[in-house]
Every structure is written in structure tokens, then in C-alpha cells.
């Protein structure tokens, strides 16, 4: 092993699993409860039923268009809805 890599290898070998997990967990910040609540406040969810299409789902929500539902849910094929699929519906105030 090259001398320059020896110190790095020794440090990695001597680091405990708990210490490694702490470094990994601290590297990616988790969403706080406030952030999660803010996300939930912006949307409500609709579960697709048999016979639903984007247009009739949009009709159930005042101020929401088919295009809004398509954009928010990244739908590429309007006929590709699946029974049980959950769609995000933006809340209008």
C-alpha cells in the first residue's frame, strides 16, 4: 500500500461503525417536522378510482385544471392512471 494512503486506511479501519453512521447521517439533512408539515399543507391527495380520468378528477376541485394535475404529478400519459394511484392536488385558497 502506498505511504500516502496508509494513514487514510488506518483511520478508516479504526473508526467504529457508530462513528461512521453518525458521519453518514449528518451528511444528508433529514426533513424537519416543519418542512414536512409545509409540504402537506400545500397539497391534498386523491386516490384514483375505476373510471377516473384527469378531467373528471379536476372537476372535483374548484380552481384546479387538468393541466395543474398533470404538471404536479409529472404525468406523461393521461390514459396511464392506475386504480389506487395517489395524485397530489394543489390546495387553492
Structural overview:
By secondary structure, this protein is mainly alpha-helical. The protein is 48% helix and 11% strand. The chain has helices at residues 3-14, 17-27, 33-42, 54-58, 66-72; strands spanning 43-47, 86-90. It has a two-stranded antiparallel ribbon. It is elongated and about 70 Å long. The N and C termini lie far apart (64 Å). The model is unreliable at 24-28 (pLDDT under 50).
Question: Which properties best describe this structure?
Answer:
mainly alpha; 93 residues; two-stranded antiparallel ribbon; 5 helices
What profile does the largest beta sheet have?
2 strands, antiparallel
Strand proportion: 5-15%
Uncertain regions: pLDDT < 50 for 5+ in a row?
A: 24-28
What is the chains' assembly state?
A: single chain
C-alpha geometry: elongated
Short description:
With 93 residues, the chain is mainly alpha-helical. The protein is built from five helices and two strands; from the N terminus they run H-H-H-E-H-H-E.
SSE inventory with pairings:
Layout lengths: L2 H12 L2 H11 L5 H10 E5 L6 H5 L7 H7 L13 E5 L3
Antiparallel strand pairs: 1-2
Amino acid at each position: 500500500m502506498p505511504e500516502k494512503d496508509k494513514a487514510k486506511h488506518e483511520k478508516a479501519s479504526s473508526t467504529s461503525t457508530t462513528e461512521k453512521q453518525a458521519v453518514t447521517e449528518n451528511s444528508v439533512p433529514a426533513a424537519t417536522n416543519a418542512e414536512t408539515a409545509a409540504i402537506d399543507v400545500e397539497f391534498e391527495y386523491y386516490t384514483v378510482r375505476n373510471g377516473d380520468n384527469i378531467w373528471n378528477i379536476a372537476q372535483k376541485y374548484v380552481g384546479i385544471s387538468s393541466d395543474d394535475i398533470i404538471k404536479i404529478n409529472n404525468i406523461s400519459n393521461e390514459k396511464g392512471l392506475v386504480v389506487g394511484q395517489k395524485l397530489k392536488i394543489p390546495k387553492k385558497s
